[in-house]
Amino acid sequence: MVKKLFFAAVVLSLIVSSAAPAFCDELNTKLDGPVTKLGRGICNMLTFPLEIPEQISRVNNSDGPFAASTVGVLKGFGWAIGRACVGVFEAATFIFPGPKNYEPVLKDPEYFLDTSNF
Questions:
Q1: Angle (CA) 58 52 89, round 5°
Q2: Structure pTM?
Q3: What are the residues whose beta carbons fall under 8 Å from the beta carbon of 91, sequence distance 6 or more?
Q4: Distance, CA of 87 to CA of 13 (rounded, Å)
Q5: What is the Cα–Cα distance from 27 to 21, expressed in whole angstroms?
Q6: C-alpha dihedral sign at 87, 46, 114, 71
Q7: Percent above pLDDT 90 for the chain
Q8: pLDDT tens readout for residues 33-53
Q9: Which of 81, 44, 48, 62 has the alpha carbon at shortest distance from 71?
């Protein structure tokens, strides 16, 4: 009796282990949205302070150093707070498909380092 149960367990484990790789691609595409959203949220939480020098640089290039020292700093703090809040939101809600099918809240740029001057 023990030999039969052992043999059945071995056969069942072989069947299950050989069938599992067939579903890997489907599982990967199902997890792509939440994992990407979590990664995007963590990235935004880590890179939000870099918005301050980035906005200072952009304003300096377009309007000059005096505007950069005032407007650029204020824009940088605003963008940094926004990026940090979006990062926390996306990391906390990564399991849910909102806003719409795991699309990013910040679209331009989705990640900070996509279009930075660094």
A1: 115
A2: 0.67
A3: 38, 41, 42, 45
A4: 42
A5: 10
A6: positive
A7: 50
A8: 899 999 999 999 999 999 999
A9: 62
Lookup result for tokens 């069942």: 12
Q: Which amino acid is at 21?
A: P
Q: Which residue has the tokens 């939101």?
A: 89
CA pair distance 85, 50, nearest whole angstrom: 14
- 86 close to 37: Cβ distance less than 8 angstroms: no
Token code pair at residue 69: 């020292």
Q: Do 48 and 83 contact (CB within 8 A), yes or no?
A: yes
Cα–Cα–Cα angle for 86, 83, 96, rounded to 5 degrees: 20
Q: Which residues of 24-39 are buried (b: 16+ CB within 10 A; e: fewer)?
A: eeeeeeeeeeeeebbe
